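Weekly puzzle thread! Below is a chain. First person to post its structure in C-alpha cell form gets bragging rights.
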Amino acid sequence: MRRLKRNQDRERGAAGVMVAVMMLVLIGAGAMAVDVGQIYAERAQLQNAADAGAMAAAKQCHEAGGCTVAQATPWAAALSGPNSNDGASTIAEVDLSVPNQVTVATSTRDGSSGAGFLTQMFSAALNAPPVTVGARATASFAPPSSGSGFPLAISDDCFNLSAAAPTGEVQKISYKPGGTCTGPSGTQIPGGWGWLDQDEPCEAETQTGSNLIGSDPGNNPPTDCQTILAEWKATILAGGEVLVTFPIFDDATNHGQNGTFHIIGYATFKIWGWKFGNNHEYEYRNKANDPGMNPALACAGGQDRCIIGQFVRFESIDSTEEIPGTGADLGTTEIKLIK
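Winning reply:
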C-alpha cells in the first residue's frame, strides 16, 4: 500500500513537469503567431505605401516631362507615409531605369520611435532578432492602349490633335468636313468621324492596332445616348467641364455595317457644344461661357452634324494592374500600377 502511494506521488510530479513544458511550448507558439501576424500586417501597410508612392511619383514625373531619382523620392514619400497605419514608412529605393515607369520600394519605420524595425511583442522573450520587412510597386505613365466610352471615333487626318494643351485650339469637328479632308483611305466612311458599334448602350470598346472596330452607319447618333448628352449639358450649365476621351483612327475601310476603323490612340476633348441631331439633348452650344467661338465654329442646320471643343492634355488615374499602354501619344496619359 505504501509502495503504491509513492508511485502515485512520482507520477504526479512527472505530470507537473509535462504541464510546465507544454506551457512553454504554447506560450512560444502564441508569441510567434502574434508576431508573425504583426509582420503580415506591416507588409500589407508597406504595400499600400509603395502603391501610393509609385502612383504619386509617376504622376509628378509625367507632369514635369521627366524627373530624377532625387526629385521622385520626396514625391513618393509624400504619399507613402500617410498610406501606412502609423503614418510612417521608409522609401528604400526609387528606380527610374525603365522609361515611363517608376518603381518604389518601401521598408519598415516605426511611427513612434522612428526605428527601422518592428517593435517586438513576445518573441523577444525567445531571443528572436528584430524584423524589418518591405514591399515594392511599379507604376507606368503611358498613352492608353484600349478604352470604353462614347461610341464616336475621330480621324487624325482631318483635325489638329498635335497641340493638346490645357487650353487648346477651339475646333469644330464635322461629320463631313469637306474641302481636302475626306476619309483617310478614300471616301468609304465619310469625313472626320465615324459612329462605332456599341457594346453597351451608348458605349463602345476599342483598342489600338485593331482593324476590327466596327462602324454604325448614318449621321444620327446610336440609340440610348439621350441620358449621356443630357448629363453633358447639365454639367456645362452648372459651370463644370465635360472631358471625353475619343478613340482616334488613321484608316477606315469599306462602308455601312461592314466599315471598320484602325485605332491608333486616344485624345481627350473638352466639349463646348454638339449637334448630333435636331433639338432637345441632341443639339447644344455653350453660349453662356463662349470660348471665343465665331460663326464658323457653329454647327450648321439641317442634316449637318458636328462637335465643338478643344483637344486638351489629360491624365487618367487607374490603380488596377494592367500592362502599360502602347497607343500614340495624343496628350492623354494613363497612370496605373503594373506590378
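Puzzle host: Confirmed. Bonus trivia for everyone else. Confidence is low (pLDDT under 50) at residues 178-188.
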